[in-house]
Design brief:
- By secondary structure, the protein is of the alpha/beta class.
- It has one domain: P-loop containing nucleotide triphosphate hydrolases (Rossmann fold).
- 48% of the residues lie in helices and 15% in strands.
- A five-stranded parallel beta sheet has the order 2-3-1-4-8, sandwiched between helices. Strands 6-5-7 form a three-stranded antiparallel beta sheet.
- A hairpin with a 5-residue loop joins strand 5 and strand 6.
- The longest helix has 15 residues.
- Bound molecules: BIS(adenosine)-5'-pentaphosphate and zinc ion.
- The site of BIS(adenosine)-5'-pentaphosphate has 37 residues, from helix 1, helix 2, helix 3, helix 6 and strand 6.
């Protein structure tokens, strides 16, 4: 299955991605995770991306498109993939179309997770992420079993640098301007699924599976 996860910052894309890739046995391609890994490793790409990410701005299209192009040609993508956080601009969506055409891949569905603005700020500001494995928690909605420790690997939890109220507000503004138009873009292609993201994590996942039509 070839899927895209679309939705504003804090909508629950990363949270749902974990369950989706497990169920359908496809690789999870998160441009945000790839960029954060590059920052952690101090690569040239990471140093460039950091400037934009810390301010809540999008990293330039050409950098992100190159990452995804490379990743899609890897062998594990033959069976399918889940793109999370990409595309985020019409230019990225057009480049993706071109790349998929040349690989003779067709998208199955674009899952759009919808959540109100107030809830998004609460979710992102309360998010805690494992420093070691990247698993995501929330101080109110998704607590780890032991305070401050990851359930998966026991690693220490921390707050993402771009999860302050100010930067999250900026990210939402950027989403509304540059990414939201993609809802129409994929609706016109007839492959958009709208999911109510303001429900329990498990219910959101159930709705996604039902909408994909593959139990
Ligand atoms: P990225 O990492 O993609 O972040 P994002 O899109 O802003 O999304 P988030 O990771 O903040 O949220 P999410 O939807 O995954 O929510 P989560 O599941 O964690 O991008 C970061 C930056 O990288 C960008 O700002 C940009 O600079 C750059 N970048 C990345 N891709 C790019 C691209 N294509 N082009 C240009 N630049 C790019 O959930 C949030 C919280 O809510 C968690 O604490 C979770 O536990 C909780 N939660 C989840 N679901 C529920 C629920 N149903 N009920 C209650 N709580 C819930
Ligand atoms: Zn962990």
């Amino acid at each position: 299955m070839r899927l895209i996860l679309l939705g504003p910052p804090g909508a629950g894309k990363g949270t749902q991605a974990v369950s989706i890739v497990k169920k359908y046995n496809i690789p999870h391609i998160s441009t945000g995770d790839i960029l954060r890994k590059n920052i952690k490793e101090g690569t040239e790409l990471g140093n460039k991306a950091k400037e934009y990410m810390d301010k809540g701005l999008l990293v330039p299209d050409e950098l992100v498109v190159a990452i995804v192009k490379d990743r899609l040609t890897e062998e594990d993508c033959i069976q399918g993939f889940l793109l999370d956080g990409f595309p985020r601009t019409v230019m990225q969506a057009d480049s993706l179309d071109t790349e998929l055409n040349s690989l003779k891949y067709e998208l199955d569905k674009v899952i759009n997770i919808d959540v109100s603005k107030e809830e998004l700020i609460d979710r992102a500001v309360g998010r805690r992420v494992c420093k070691d494995c990247g698993a995501t928690y929330h101080i109110k909605f998704n607590l780890p079993k032991a305070e401050g420790k990851c359930d998966v690997c026991g690693g220490e939890l921390h707050q993402r640098k771009d999860d302050t109220e100010e930067t999250v507000s900026k990210r939402i503004e950027v989403y509304l301007e540059q990414t939201k138009p993609l809802i129409n873009y994929y609706e016109e292609k007839g492959i958009l699924i709208n999911i109510d993201g303001k429900q329990d994590i498990d219910k959101v996942f159930q709705d996604i599976v039902t909408a994909l039509g593959r139990e």
